[in-house]
Input
Amino acid sequence: MGHHCVQTLEGSITQHIETQRGRDVTSPLALRSTQWKMLTSSAWVFKTVTRGYRLQFAVTPPRFSGILHSQARGESALILEREILSLLEKRAISIVPAQQSQGGFYSKYFLVPKRGRERNSANT
Output
């Protein structure tokens, strides 16, 4: 019996990119920045609401050493694909534009078995 490989995510992700083109990228929170300014005296809260949250690393991430490609097959590939699309929809992650893809920090994305189900994880 051979292994069954699921197609790469390119099809689903390409479809997601096409549906997002021309769509306003302003977050729902930022659209209400006037109300937020009246609700908080914290500059950090207001900046986070209007500009988004940026991860803060305890140490500087390693220099770019190439793109790491995650590999999954069968049900694992489908679970990861659904999770990636969900994160894209929530704007928790974004697709790196081609002109920026040769820099930055990449980590593999994979599933970890957990009591009768699998949970996604990034290797950082």
